[in-house]
Structure formats: C-alpha cells, structure tokens
Write a structure and sequence with these properties.
Blueprint (H helix, E strand, L loop, with lengths): L12 H16 L21 E7 L9 H10 L3 E7 L5 H10 L7 E5 L3 H6 L7 H4 L8 H5 L2 E2 L2 E2 L2 E2 L6 E5 H6 L15 H13 L4 E5 L5 H4 L1 H5 L6 E2 L5 E2 L4 H15 L9 H9 L3 E6 L4 H6 L4 E5 L10 E2 L3 E5 L6 H12 L5 H5 L9 H8 L7 H16 L1 E2 L7 H16 L4 H15 L5
Parallel strand pairs: 1-2, 1-3, 8-11, 13-15
Antiparallel strand pairs: 3-14, 4-5, 6-14, 7-11, 7-12, 9-10
Amino acid sequence: MQWRKSVRANLTIVGFLAFGVLTLLLESCGASTSSGSGNVLALPSKDPTATIRVLSILDPKNDNMQPVIDAFEKAHPTITVKWQVVPFDSLNSTIDAHVANKSGDPDIYWADQPRVSALASRGEATDLTSVFSKYSSSFDPTAYNAGLYDGKLWALPIANSTQLLYYNKDLLKKAGLKDPSPEISARMTWEELTADAAKAHAAGAQYGFLFGQFDRYYQLEILPVQLGGSVGASGPRNLTPDFTSDAWVRAFTWYGKLFADGISPRGVTPEETDPAFLAGKAAYEVQGPWLLPELQASKINWGVAPQPVFTHGKPATPTGSWSLAINPFSKEKVAAAVFLKWISIDNGGGYIKYRSNPELAASVEGKKIYFAKSVFESPEGKNAAKIIDYETSNTAVNRVSTIGYIEFEGILNQAFADIRNGADAKATLDRASTELTTAWKKYE
C-alpha cells in the first residue's frame, strides 16, 4: 500500500514492528496515520471522521441521487460525501487522468463493468478481495463476477440489467397476430418474431421490430452466444478476437436481413427507439426494465414477454450495469469501504433502496426492494417481474472481460453498424477481427 513507501529504509526491525502494531491499532478503531479514515482498506468497528469524493455519471438532482447521499450521511454521520458528476462519455478519460495524478481524488468512482479488468490491469483500482469477497453470495453471480479480474475482486456491483420483449397489443391485433406468451417455457423464437414483425409492418406499423440499442455489443452479444458462439474474444486474458465463427456469421446475417427486409429501420438511433415505441410506431421492441415506468405512464396498450431465442439455440440474455471501485491512491479507503458496503450490500443496498428510479438490483436482498416498486403491481408488471427474476438468475451472460475492451467494443459496434447498412456479415466480421488483432498488439 502507499503508506509503506513513506517508511524509511533504515528503520530498525523493532521500530518497524512498532510502527506496524500502531497502524493496526489505528485501523481497528477507525483512525489512520493520515486524515482520519485510513488509506488501508478495512471495514472498521467504528466509523471514521472523513470526507469521501465520489465520481459518478449520475446527478444528485436530475438523476435522483440526492436521497441516496442523504440516507448514507444520516446512517454514517461522521462521513461526508462530496459528489462529483461527469458525462458518461467523459467518465473513462476522467478516471484515467485523476487516478494517474495520484492525488487520491476521487476516492470512489463509477466503473462500467466490462472495463473493470482494464482498470485493474492499469493499477487504477484497489483490490477488494480481502474485505468484500466474503459477501459474494449477497449478489447475483453474474453481477459479482463482473468485478473479478485475474482471480481477484476489484469492484462491487450496485445494479444489474436484463432484456425483455415488449409489444404493442393494438398493432398486433390489427395484423391478426397473437400476443407472445409471458411464460418462460413458451419463449418466442427470433424466427417467429421476424415473421410476425414483418406482418405487423405490412399491416401498418411504422416499424416491425426495434432493438432498444441498435449496433451496440451490450444488446447484440447474446445473438451468437445463443447459437453456441463465444462472447467475442478468447485466449489468454481474452485478447484473441473470436467473432468470425459460423455462429457469429449466422447471427449477424440474420441481423442484417432485418434491415434489408424493412422489418427494422436503418436510420433510427438508440436514443430514438424508446420514444418510437412509446409513440405507438413499433410492434415489438427488445429493451431493458428501465422502459417499464414510461410504459406505465403511457397510453400504449402494451405487453411483455421473455426475450426470444434462435430455433435450436440456448436462451441467453444480456446483463451488466455499474459497479463501484476505489482509487488505489485514496487516503480515505476505510470510509470508502464503509460507503461501498452500505450502497451495495447493507439492507439490499442503499442505491436500490433510496433511489426512486426502478433500476434492477445486483444484490439478492435488493431484488425484494426492487420488485416491491409500483411498476410491478399491474398484471403486465407482474409478468415482467417473473421474467426479470428468471433471466438474471438463469440466462444472463456478461460482456467479455478483457483489458482491451475499449478497442473491442468500438470496432465491433462499427461492424454492426456496417452490417445494418447492408455490408456482408462474414466479410465485415473478418475485417473487424483483423483490425482488432492489430489494435490489441500493444497488449502483447
């Protein structure tokens, strides 16, 4: 740890041992050799007096994080939270710059889960294993595993995600189509969805089918996985591109045909998909649970079903969200550990308990709080709850864990966009694989 670097090389053995004993005593009572909370990771028996700086993409007012901050400070009155906000697109560069200057600011930061391995490998995250690995059973396994790299724990999840199939009952009725079943055992196939979406489009729906996040790896990863393909990379440290297999080509040939046949639109961005469905323009949309509150408040006659699977494929659904990591140069690691435990674990997690937005919980106990929210009281809400609970426990697949994730996601997302716009799936994936191999040479 960093405080060890300040110990002079010529300390006598006796002096060194005395210093070590004193440090342990200070840690046990929540004090430290620095500003009061300690720069050695621990969970104290008594809260330290400290100020911690948290870097997030969520604004206290606009994103309803102030109730979370207030609840923490009420539960832990000797710890003050200084909240810092950056745009999503600036988060990773901000983390890199701030950790690199070794000032210890921020103490805690929001970490996009597939980037945890890169953060850990670059020395930008604190090893949480000794303190938090004993709480692994508190989380859905896939959510907890997203914080692992090289056998150690580097971040704790505060939220989770999955995907559902939403449909417009009126547009389906107009096309003479049956509503998809909400039962897991009667999961629709992609082939069935394609045929029905084409009929709905022909009957007047502006869009037959929408992916909530066109051209994004998070939502599209599971297509080849359902057909037996990999998550996109393999080999040591997942630094060998692995998305040119037959499963990948088949999956994205199907993806490209959606647009070639006019079932899905080429010009609609991920920011436009939800508004289009809420405006009654689309017969079907695959999207996350975050759409539920807007559907509840809308005038759409909607229903919900499990995300489809390819015929003869194995069900697989996207998952992943945000975790929290601690700056390795933080001088307030004890207070930071108290915050991490409270926001992710205690009583189901303060993030889920006190934030009004119905974001899916990563913790097992937090799910009880999540499913108690009003969006799950209606008949369709109850259907959604059953699907969400099942998918997160049985079919969830994490995004690939690799230190080269930033290059991986950027190159693949561009390949998906090219296929969407008419490029041949196999040729495009082959070209992307070559490009990524070159981009990853710096990690060899």
